[in-house]
Amino acid sequence: MGKILMKGNEAIGEAAIRAGCLNYFAYPITPQSEVAEYLSRRMPEVGGVFLQGESEVAVGYMLFGAAGCGARVFTTSSSPGISLMSEAISYISSAELPVVFVNIVRGGPGLGGILPSQADYFQATKGGGHGDYRLLVMAPASVQEAVDMVMMAFPLAEKYRNPVMILGDGLIGQMMEPVEFSDHLKSEPSNKDHWATSGMDTRKSKERNLVKSLFLDAQQLEEHNLVLKAKYDRMKQEEVRYEPYNIDSDYRALIVSYGTMSRVCKTAIDNMKAEGIEAAMIRPQTLFPFPINPIREAASKEGCQAVVTFELSMGQMVEDVERSVQGKRPVYWHGKAGGEIPTPEEVIDAVKSFIKP
Fold first, then answer.
1. pLDDT single digits (tens) 222-263
2. Which mean pLDDT values do the consecutive 10-residue runs of the chain (357 residues) have?
3. What does the alpha-carbon distance between residue 353 and residue 9 come to, in Å, rounded to a whole number?
4. Tens-digit pLDDT profile for residues 84-126
5. Does the fold of domain 243-354 match that of domain 4-202+209-238?
6. Domains of the chain: which residue ranges?
7. Which CATH number fits domain 243-354: 3.40.50.920, 3.40.50.300, 3.40.30.10, 3.20.20.30?
8. What phi, psi does 332 have (nearest 5°)?
9. CATH architecture entry for 4-202+209-238
10. What is the pTM of this model?
11. Which whole-number Å values give the CA distances from 121 to 56, 139, 144, 279, in the listed order?
């Protein structure tokens, strides 16, 4: 199948269907409402279920119930909507259920605005709800990558029995780009008989399965948290993804950027090269687990004078970059948080201000 010109939100919905997910529960909120609009038509065509909840809170527990029964299920929302789902996300994480969340981020805090943002980085990577839990978080930089990551997210959620979040700034949902739905990304649902509440007759088992997040005994709760931590540590070993750019040059500045902001940085890097100024970039494709070692190694390269993060926020990822660099180089931040996107010229001017002439 060739490439199709699609809007990001619609491509995300189609990608979920191609990944074998036929259960979609959601509540509309800009700038991602086209996902629900698209799937309200497509799901009935493929024998799937589209259900609009009465609120994002309700949607969170619809996801909990469907995932607990072993169904492939996902939702899409935007910043305030994800906040309302945060309690359910904590429960889902504790109950070790595979659910895919897509957050097409809008500006904030509060009601904010509908223009693109990356200000939900903390919410996604540090746990927006209560308790010790982590999500596997991926950040696409194009509509094609959003499609690929959505299709990857379902087997990853099932591999770890853990929620996976796709964090896309508002541009990802609203832009149109050619996309291709790759057959090699399709996957069969994993065997869930040992945990899903699919019925003893269905499983041909005499054992009941119980999905829960309540542990009243202190030792049992401690053991449960250690099991979860071991899972997150395994993610750090096996699931770090990143893209290096111009990393083999004799660069004087290392840029760390993700999502569509990284595309602006690529243009800036190319333009600086024409001026005789070399810069390189590490683009995290997974925000958790974060590419700590690749950033540390790149920052340690001889000739690198500074590390600069470019974000559509007030500098949330910069904390993880500082943790990666460990003081080997100064770390700076540049960005905007009102919905405007820094231009390549702004990126170039910022980089020049942080390095020696």
1. 999 999 999 999 999 999 999 999 999 999 999 999 999 999
2. 92 98 97 97 97 98 97 98 98 98 96 95 94 97 98 98 97 97 88 90 88 96 98 98 98 98 98 97 98 98 97 97 97 96 97 94
3. 37
4. 999 999 999 999 999 999 999 999 999 999 999 999 999 999 9
5. yes
6. 4-202+209-238, 243-354
7. 3.40.50.920
8. -120, 160
9. 3-Layer(aba) Sandwich (3.40)
10. 0.97
11. 20, 10, 21, 25
